[in-house]
Amino acid sequence: MIKEKEQDIRHQDVVCTNETNLDHKWYHHLKYLAAGIIFGIIFVKAEVISWFRIQEMFRLQSFHMYGIIGSAVLVGIISVWLIKKFKIKTIYGEPITIASKKFSKGQIYGGIIFGFGWAITGACPGPLFAQIGTGALAVSVTLLSAIAGTWVYGYFRDKLPH
Questions:
Q1: Does the pLDDT of residue 1 top 60, yes or no?
Q2: What are phi and psi of 138, to 5 degrees?
Q3: What is the DSSP string of 81-138?
Q4: Element holding 38 (H helix, E strand)
Q5: Looking at residue 4, what is its pLDDT?
Q6: Burial class (CB in 10 A: 0-12, 13-18, 19+), 155
Q7: Single pTM value for the model
Q8: Residues 6 or more apart from 18 whose CB is under 8 A from it?
Q9: 66 and 48 in contact (C-beta within 8 Å)?
Q10: Which of 9, 57, 90, 114 meets the CB 3.0–4.6 Å disulfide criterion with 94?
Protein backbone atom coordinates (compact mmCIF):
# COMPACT_ATOMS: atom_id res chain seq x y z
CA MET A 1 0.00 0.00 0.00
CA ILE A 2 2.78 2.43 0.91
CA LYS A 3 4.70 1.53 -2.26
CA GLU A 4 1.62 2.27 -4.41
CA LYS A 5 1.05 5.61 -2.68
CA GLU A 6 4.72 6.53 -3.11
CA GLN A 7 4.48 5.58 -6.79
CA ASP A 8 1.44 7.83 -7.25
CA ILE A 9 3.16 10.77 -5.55
CA ARG A 10 6.38 10.22 -7.49
CA HIS A 11 4.63 10.37 -10.85
CA GLN A 12 2.57 13.47 -10.06
CA ASP A 13 5.45 15.68 -11.05
CA VAL A 14 5.32 14.41 -14.64
CA VAL A 15 1.71 15.50 -15.03
CA CYS A 16 1.49 18.89 -16.69
CA THR A 17 -1.04 20.81 -14.61
CA ASN A 18 -1.00 23.74 -17.04
CA GLU A 19 -1.47 21.74 -20.23
CA THR A 20 -3.77 23.55 -22.63
CA ASN A 21 -6.83 22.01 -24.23
CA LEU A 22 -6.72 24.47 -27.11
CA ASP A 23 -5.88 23.24 -30.59
CA HIS A 24 -3.45 25.43 -32.49
CA LYS A 25 -2.10 25.40 -36.03
CA TRP A 26 1.56 24.55 -36.62
CA TYR A 27 2.56 28.18 -37.13
CA HIS A 28 1.30 29.01 -33.63
CA HIS A 29 4.63 27.65 -32.32
CA LEU A 30 6.78 29.98 -34.42
CA LYS A 31 6.61 32.55 -31.63
CA TYR A 32 8.50 30.10 -29.41
CA LEU A 33 11.17 29.70 -32.07
CA ALA A 34 11.50 33.49 -32.27
CA ALA A 35 11.68 33.77 -28.47
CA GLY A 36 14.37 31.07 -28.40
CA ILE A 37 16.44 32.87 -31.02
CA ILE A 38 16.17 36.16 -29.11
CA PHE A 39 17.04 34.37 -25.87
CA GLY A 40 20.11 32.83 -27.54
CA ILE A 41 21.26 36.21 -28.85
CA ILE A 42 20.91 37.67 -25.35
CA PHE A 43 22.96 34.75 -23.96
CA VAL A 44 25.71 35.43 -26.50
CA LYS A 45 25.76 39.21 -25.93
CA ALA A 46 25.71 38.82 -22.13
CA GLU A 47 28.58 36.32 -22.38
CA VAL A 48 26.54 33.72 -20.48
CA ILE A 49 27.75 31.04 -22.89
CA SER A 50 31.42 31.96 -22.49
CA TRP A 51 33.46 29.10 -21.08
CA PHE A 52 35.84 31.68 -19.60
CA ARG A 53 33.00 33.49 -17.77
CA ILE A 54 31.76 30.18 -16.38
CA GLN A 55 35.27 29.27 -15.18
CA GLU A 56 35.60 32.71 -13.55
CA MET A 57 32.37 32.03 -11.69
CA PHE A 58 33.44 28.63 -10.39
CA ARG A 59 36.85 30.01 -9.37
CA LEU A 60 35.13 32.94 -7.58
CA GLN A 61 37.10 35.40 -9.72
CA SER A 62 34.18 37.41 -11.12
CA PHE A 63 30.70 38.54 -10.12
CA HIS A 64 29.43 38.61 -13.74
CA MET A 65 27.64 35.22 -13.78
CA TYR A 66 26.42 35.54 -10.19
CA GLY A 67 24.84 38.87 -11.11
CA ILE A 68 23.06 37.35 -14.12
CA ILE A 69 21.88 34.27 -12.21
CA GLY A 70 20.83 36.38 -9.23
CA SER A 71 18.86 38.72 -11.48
CA ALA A 72 17.09 35.75 -13.08
CA VAL A 73 16.22 34.29 -9.67
CA LEU A 74 14.88 37.65 -8.48
CA VAL A 75 12.75 38.08 -11.62
CA GLY A 76 11.46 34.51 -11.17
CA ILE A 77 10.54 35.08 -7.52
CA ILE A 78 8.70 38.31 -8.32
CA SER A 79 6.95 36.73 -11.33
CA VAL A 80 5.69 33.71 -9.38
CA TRP A 81 4.55 35.97 -6.53
CA LEU A 82 2.62 38.19 -8.96
CA ILE A 83 1.05 35.18 -10.71
CA LYS A 84 -0.13 33.75 -7.38
CA LYS A 85 -1.22 37.06 -5.84
CA PHE A 86 -3.26 38.32 -8.79
CA LYS A 87 -4.27 34.86 -10.11
CA ILE A 88 -2.89 35.79 -13.52
CA LYS A 89 -4.11 33.65 -16.42
CA THR A 90 -2.51 32.76 -19.74
CA ILE A 91 -3.10 34.97 -22.76
CA TYR A 92 -5.89 32.53 -23.68
CA GLY A 93 -7.62 32.94 -20.30
CA GLU A 94 -6.56 29.57 -18.87
CA PRO A 95 -5.56 29.45 -15.19
CA ILE A 96 -1.89 29.02 -14.23
CA THR A 97 -1.34 26.43 -11.53
CA ILE A 98 1.98 26.26 -9.69
CA ALA A 99 2.27 22.94 -7.88
CA SER A 100 4.09 22.95 -4.56
CA LYS A 101 7.17 20.75 -4.34
CA LYS A 102 8.59 18.89 -1.37
CA PHE A 103 12.28 19.23 -0.63
CA SER A 104 14.38 16.05 -0.67
CA LYS A 105 18.08 15.39 -0.19
CA GLY A 106 18.18 14.06 -3.74
CA GLN A 107 17.94 17.68 -4.89
CA ILE A 108 21.25 18.38 -3.13
CA TYR A 109 22.94 15.39 -4.79
CA GLY A 110 21.48 16.32 -8.16
CA GLY A 111 22.63 19.92 -7.74
CA ILE A 112 26.16 18.79 -6.92
CA ILE A 113 26.28 16.51 -9.97
CA PHE A 114 24.83 19.30 -12.13
CA GLY A 115 27.41 21.78 -10.78
CA PHE A 116 30.31 19.40 -11.45
CA GLY A 117 29.08 18.84 -15.00
CA TRP A 118 28.66 22.56 -15.51
CA ALA A 119 32.16 23.31 -14.19
CA ILE A 120 33.80 20.57 -16.25
CA THR A 121 32.03 21.26 -19.55
CA GLY A 122 31.49 25.00 -19.24
CA ALA A 123 27.87 24.54 -20.26
CA CYS A 124 24.46 24.03 -18.71
CA PRO A 125 21.32 23.01 -20.62
CA GLY A 126 20.06 26.54 -21.31
CA PRO A 127 23.04 27.89 -23.24
CA LEU A 128 23.94 24.61 -24.98
CA PHE A 129 22.03 25.44 -28.14
CA ALA A 130 23.34 29.01 -28.19
CA GLN A 131 26.89 27.67 -27.90
CA ILE A 132 26.30 25.26 -30.78
CA GLY A 133 24.72 28.13 -32.74
CA THR A 134 27.89 30.21 -32.36
CA GLY A 135 29.91 27.42 -33.95
CA ALA A 136 31.24 25.75 -30.80
CA LEU A 137 30.46 22.32 -32.21
CA ALA A 138 32.48 20.55 -29.50
CA VAL A 139 29.55 21.37 -27.22
CA SER A 140 27.55 18.81 -29.21
CA VAL A 141 29.28 16.17 -27.08
CA THR A 142 27.89 17.89 -23.98
CA LEU A 143 24.42 17.99 -25.55
CA LEU A 144 24.53 14.28 -26.39
CA SER A 145 25.81 13.54 -22.88
CA ALA A 146 22.94 15.54 -21.36
CA ILE A 147 20.44 13.61 -23.47
CA ALA A 148 22.08 10.31 -22.47
CA GLY A 149 22.04 11.32 -18.80
CA THR A 150 18.36 12.19 -19.00
CA TRP A 151 17.63 8.83 -20.60
CA VAL A 152 19.63 6.96 -17.92
CA TYR A 153 17.76 8.80 -15.17
CA GLY A 154 14.41 7.99 -16.80
CA TYR A 155 15.40 4.34 -17.13
CA PHE A 156 16.45 3.98 -13.47
CA ARG A 157 13.98 6.48 -11.96
CA ASP A 158 11.71 3.86 -10.37
CA LYS A 159 14.69 2.22 -8.70
CA LEU A 160 16.15 5.44 -7.26
CA PRO A 161 15.28 6.80 -3.80
CA HIS A 162 13.13 9.91 -3.98
A1: no
A2: -60, -25
A3: HHHHHHT-B-TTSPBP--------HHHHHHHHHHHHHHHHHS--HHHHHHHHHTT-TT
A4: helix 30-45
A5: 52
A6: exposed
A7: 0.72
A8: 90, 94, 96, 97
A9: no
A10: 90
User: Confidence band (pLDDT; 50, 70, 90) for 15?
Assistant: low
DSSP letter at 15 equals S
Whether residue 83 has pLDDT greater than 80: yes
The C-alpha angle 19, 105, 51, rounded to 5 degrees, equals 75
Alpha-carbon radius of gyration of the chain: 19
Taking 70 as the threshold, does the pLDDT of residue 31 lie above it?
A: yes
φ, ψ for residue 95, nearest 5 deg: -70, 150
Find the angle CA(72)-CA(75)-CA(80) to the nearest 5 degrees.
125
Q: How far is 72 from 79, CA to CA, in rounded Å? A: 10
Residue 160's φ and ψ, nearest 5 degrees, are -90, 150
Sign of the CA dihedral running 70, 73, 74, 75: positive
